[in-house]
Specification:
The chain is α/β, with parallel strands linked by helices and about 375 residues long. It is about 45% helix and about 15% strand. The protein is built from 15 helices and 13 strands. The protein has helices at about 15-30, 65-70, 75-80, 110-115, 120-140, 145-155, 180-190, 210-225, 240-250, 265-270, 285-295, 305-310, 325-335, 335-360, 360-370, and strands at about 5, 40-45, 55-60, 85-90, 105-110, 140-145, 165, 195-200, 230-235, 255-260, 275-280, 300, 315-320. A 7-stranded parallel sheet has the order 3-2-1-4-5-6-7, with helices on both faces. The chain has a 3-stranded parallel sheet with strand order 8-9-10, with helices on one face. A 3-stranded parallel sheet has the order 11-12-13, sandwiched between helices. Helix 1 links the parallel strand 1 (about 5) and strand 2. The chain starts with a strand and ends with a helix. The relative contact order is 0.12.
């Protein structure tokens, strides 16, 4: 019998990429628990999550601490009391002071603080820049969410390839094509947008390169006299958001920011946009790319990190540092319906491959739990 504990701080954070990843991976993991094995969830606060008979949830008592500190206090204590065999840490870092006998299994989503520290805030790169390397050194096995991230782990962290498993993150089934006309009318009713529109989804921060799209739209307007489309930018506020919004003022009503968007509206946006535009400077995976493709949307994305891997043949790949390339891709898609339809068809094929990979997570993690050192 093996006891697997899970660091579940992010279980109540489904609006974040890691929170979404944890909840869906947990469902797969619990569904494939071998007979006789047990699961213990270590949550920071009480959250709504149904656990089967072979699993229990512990919730924190030291919640007066920031969760970034809490992880290093109660989890090591609980691990001793529960006599766990393995701990899966899905959010890049492992607790300090863990018993040596406990196998650490770590998910690393990206190495931004290590590879591109200038793309994150000073506090984030200080905290994660120290804790990711120390956590990777502790881990007996590392899961990651793209082959690009695997290469980064090998090249920048010295992890052996045989100690890394790549499993794409799960894409929930409600991300699927919806009726385009109905979706367009819903978007118009909610946001007042009547023009064709491109879509951006992501945190409003420098790494996502929303300013690159703004610069591209300015180039198109200069060429054509006016913009034949709008940009709807969906996401949460992040590092240097106000600077980005100030730059977008030059686009007037053709730039529509939308924060805290509900699932129904997001699905309608994916299903009725000309394309998703995500010219990020770095992505460990790029979840909005997969969500958009699952809804039958073409994508325009970067030629670096995991972006071209995720998009496959369903996207137009550009240099994110060249606004002219972003502008050219946007103009090509707005003018060429045949290409849009072709990329949409390829998107559905690519997302089927990604979903097939995601199905292997639960079984593979239990294999790692039971592997002998």
């Amino acid at each position: 019998m093996a006891i697997l504990a899970i660091e579940a701080r992010r279980l109540g954070s489904e609006q974040t990429g890691i929170g979404h990843y944890l909840r869906w991976c947990l469902s797969d993991l619990l569904a494939h628990t071998p007979p006789g094995d047990r699961v213990v969830l270590y949550a920071f606060r009480k959250v709504k999550f149904s656990t089967p008979n072979h699993a229990i949830m512990r919730t924190g008592r030291f919640t007066f601490l920031p969760n970034t500190v809490w992880i290093h206090t109660e989890i090591p204590l609980w691990s001793r009391l529960d006599r766990i065999d393995s701990l899966w840490c899905p959010a890049q870092i492992a607790p300090f002071f863990m018993p040596e006998r406990v196998k650490i299994i770590l998910t690393v989503h990206d190495l931004i603080p290590i590879i591109a520290p200038h793309l994150s805030s000073r506090l984030y790169r200080w905290y994660m820049g120290h804790l990711i390397p120390s956590s990777v050194r502790k881990a007996q096995h590392v899961f990651t969410i793209s082959h690009a991230s695997k290469r980064d782990l090998v090249e920048h962290m010295g992890v052996k390839e045989e100690n890394i498993t790549v499993v794409y993150p799960p894409i929930p089934p409600h991300f699927k094509p919806h009726n385009m006309e109905e979706s367009r009318h819903y978007v118009k009713r909610k946001l007042g947008v009547s023009k064709p529109f491109f879509l951006f989804v992501g945190r409003f921060e420098p790494r996502k390169n929303l300013t690159g799209i703004i610069e591209a739209m300015k180039l198109i307007r200069d060429r054509r006299g006016e913009l034949p489309f709008s940009l709807i930018a969906v996401g949460n506020k992040g590092w240097r958001t106000e600077e980005i919004l100030k730059e977008a003022n030059v686009l007037g009503n053709d730039f529509i920011p939308a924060f805290n968007v509900k699932s129904e509206l997001l699905l309608a946006l994916y299903s009725s946009c000309v394309a998703l535009v995500l010219p990020s400077f770095y992505e460990g995976f790029g979840l909005p790319l997969a969500e958009a493709m699952a809804c039958g949307s073409p994508v325009i994305t970067s030629n670096i990190s995991a972006c071209p891997e995720v998009a496959g043949e369903a996207g137009i790949i550009i240099n994110p540092r060249e606004p002219e390339e972003i502008a050219g891709a946007m103009e090509t898609l707005i003018d060429n319906k045949h290409l849009r339809d072709s990329l949409a068809s390829k998107a559905l094929h690519r997302i089927a491959e990604i979903r097939q990979s995601a199905k292997g997570f639960g079984r593979r993690l239990w294999e790692v739990v039971h592997e002998k050192a």
